[in-house]
Amino acid sequence: xxxxxxxxKQEILDRIGHCNSEQEVEDLRVEYLGRKGRLTLLxxxxxxxxxEQRPQRGAKLNELKVLFEEKIGDRLKxxxxxxxxxxxxxxxxxxxxxxxxxxxxxxxxxxLVMDETVDVFLRMGFEIARGPDIEDDYHNFEALNxxxxxxxxxxxxxxxxxxxxxxxxxxxxxxxxxxxxxxxxLQIIAPGAVYRHDDDATHSPMFHQVEGxxxxxxxxxxxxKGVLTHxxxxxFEEKIGxxxxxxxxxxxxxxAEIDIACVxxxxxxxxxxxxxxxxxxxxxxxxILGAGMIHPQVFRFVGYDPEKVSGFAxxxxxxxxxxxxxxxxxxxxxxxNDVRFLRQFR
Amino acid sequence: xxxxxxxxxxxxxxxxxxxxxxxxxxMAGFEVESLTPLRTEKGEAxxxxxxxxxxxNRGDCLGILGLAREVAALTGAxxxxxxxxxYALDGSIRSLVDVKISSPRLCPRYSARIVRDIHVGPSPTWxxxxxEACGIRSINNVVDITNYVMLETGQPLHxxxxxxxxxxxxxxxxxxxIRKFKTLDGxxxxxxxxxxxxxxxxxxxxxxxxxxxxxSEVQISTKVVLLESAHFDPISVRRTAKRLELHTEASHRFxxxxxxxxxxxxxxxxxxxxxxxxxxxxxxxxxxxxxxxxKATAILLKxxxxxxxxxxxMKRSEVEKIIKSLGLxxxxxxxxxxxxxxxxxxxxxxxxxxxxEELARLYGYEKIPSTLPLVRPQGSRADSHLSxxxxxxxxxxxxxxxxxxxxxxxxxxxxxxxxGLWQGRASPVPILNPLVQExxxxxxxxxxxxxxNLRTHMAQRLKSFWGFELGKxxxxxxxxxxxxxxxxxxxxxxxxxERKGLKAKEEEPLDFADAKGLLEGIxxxxxxxxxxxxxHNSLPSFLHPGKAAxxxxxxxRLGYLGEFHPDLCEELDLPHFFIMExxxxxxLQYAPPKLTARSLPRxxxxxxxxxxVVDEGFPAQRIISWIKDQGDPLIEDVQxxxxxxxxxxxxxxxSLAYRVCYRAEERTLTDAEVGALHQDLILQIxxxxxxxxxx
Lengths: 346, 695
Description:
heterodimer; A: alpha+beta; 12 helices; 11 strands; 40% helix; 20% strand; B: alpha+beta; 19 helices; 32 strands
């Protein structure tokens, strides 16, 4: 008798263990605990059990019933959970399909480089200044120490609006305009478009420059070196080679041309396969900035005393920096405005 | 300036290898642009061709001698001069020719010699090779020698066929009433009265410092040569050469300044070579008219100034060493500095700063320390223009519009058609020397550029094109002052905004509201989205008369927006598109300088809708404005949210639905209260607009 209950218990536990769905569990419940279920019948048959055995057997049967219901409950929970999981699994998406989004526009690389350049100087405490694109001869040339018939005027091919009025050939006239209005200390950065009568793969009739200058009582050439080296390391890379060499501009003295180590060959002049580097043409250096100490004549034009103030000025071509930074080989790409080109810049 | 290293070695005996010399010159301000071996026929490199960029202030280095002086200063090797002619010979030059300078200001010095019994023929091969390596075409031995000596000394020379000079009386004078002259390239030149000429009596034989004449040119039959070695005023030569567009080796040098003390050496050197390679016999004597000798002035070089400009202390001994290496003389020494005299070939050195540059240059820019200066900002505000410009740019890019930058040139026809936002009749700024005649004006508007961009994209069969440009436009002030420049923002939208991902449901065509939405977004960023006034009055003719508007601010026009006129699209062979052009500077002007936050309301709002049936032409904004004008403090906001046409709304009418938001600041409004308020509002609108209400 005891043994048969033990067998039944084992049987029930085994069968619950083998149920694979909610339905099978339910069927099992009906089979044992339904109106005609085997366990129900056994419980009902208690009345036929001799009274002295009844309490003990009743207790055993009840225990079995409680255990059975508990197990059924657990099993149901499990199988419901499994079912939920199955349904969720079936909702699985193809994660390799593309996401839905709007296409965004492109930023113009010139704007990006101009922003980046200006920001380096703003962080150093410089201020922004702007000037007109159409300049008079005085601000574009004369006050920059290039009187009429000065051979240095030939350094720039000029668009003329009238005899006395040009499309500015550089952003340097902003120096004059700011100094005419204000007194030192000055630390100014002036971005803008400039124009040269020229059109080929390396020249565009319009391009962009960022001009900067600093004037105070004791500004020196070594300050110029420090500020521009910092700038170049911010825009290119921390360890980039920077070289200052003498040059000539009518409005600065001493004047310097600043080179960075070639971005393609790293300054070796040759690429890994031994070919002459096409970016620096073998020199290992790339000209990137023109600069110098503001010429005493320029100070005199704006009414500053060159014995009391000194300052440096510099100018750089934004397109050139963008070409080197992004590996762009033809300047005309900047102004063809092809969306497919521009969308690369974000 | 091109030269060969063997040639350079005839002037300075350096031992350094070619690459090192090139590097030294580059780092001293003479950028060596190329250094190439010159090979003999057997393929051995026995010489090097060097191309040096000489800056415009260094006319003295447009001759090998000048560069030799630099190399000497850099290496310490001494400069040496190849021998000039020292023949004692028959005859006397004075009986053969006379020289008179009528304009001594323009011709401070004129030296000349005569060589007879010349045999004109080819130059020796080595000379031809050197000239050609340096970019000068070989003509004949006489002309080649003048060029050869010019390359050596930087002093331009000219050889006249003396037998072809009829009066044998050289006069250096301004052209005056001489109007025409045929230069040796066979071109007849128009002269200006101030041009400086070399004349034979009354006959012009050369444009001074620019080019000789055809009539006195050395030719195969020439026997006697008059050699000119003169000094001309740089500005006068430049003016003449520029006006005649005649840029020659001679004018290039005179413009940049030639050593006035160098005429005789060059002359004698050429005479020697004529004797050696053209079998010439030099006539004794030299004519040397030198009416204006330039006196060198002493330049004060203060130690304190050196330190201030370079940011480092330079020892006096170092200063003197550099000064002397360049051929400058120390005239006087004092506690505070030096008095220095520059040689005649360094006319570019006239100020203290010039000398300090020389010190820095020869000391080496690399050795000057690198420091960061103290920046002393003067307390100005951060640039709001820049930050707003950036916000608008990144908003548009995020909205799918690509930033474009066009050249600011336009054709007259385009400027007439698209006069932009200028008030009244705008006159464009013409360019005197445009690159292409077609685009000979500065743009009045950004639209022509954007239309050109659209056209380029159509040619590539792209389905859509959304672009914007933030750039300047220009308008003439009719010759008074500089032209006016304004920064504008223009946007062109063609086709749908592109989507990424799987195909979405069919999209509605781009319409006015899409374009307007973009503009409202910009106004939002600038903080004044709510105060724009839209108007239909006198729209630009290139816009669709029904789907376009002016954006106004008070009486001021900020910009326009609309569909491009369909007729014009057809005429210009363009697809349909929307454009807008805004006066960006004015937009910023009206933008509030600062943003003030509002705290959040404490009590909930209640929303109620109302719908009215109005005539087709009734502007939806009118009801909103009217409600706002009533100034009811409990009405927080009104929005139009639907527009409906069709059954059961009668033909010629439309239904507009508005949502009114009620809120009290200090309490929660009850339903009954709002219901009464709303009912009242509906009645009033009915009366005010004679509008039929829908329920």
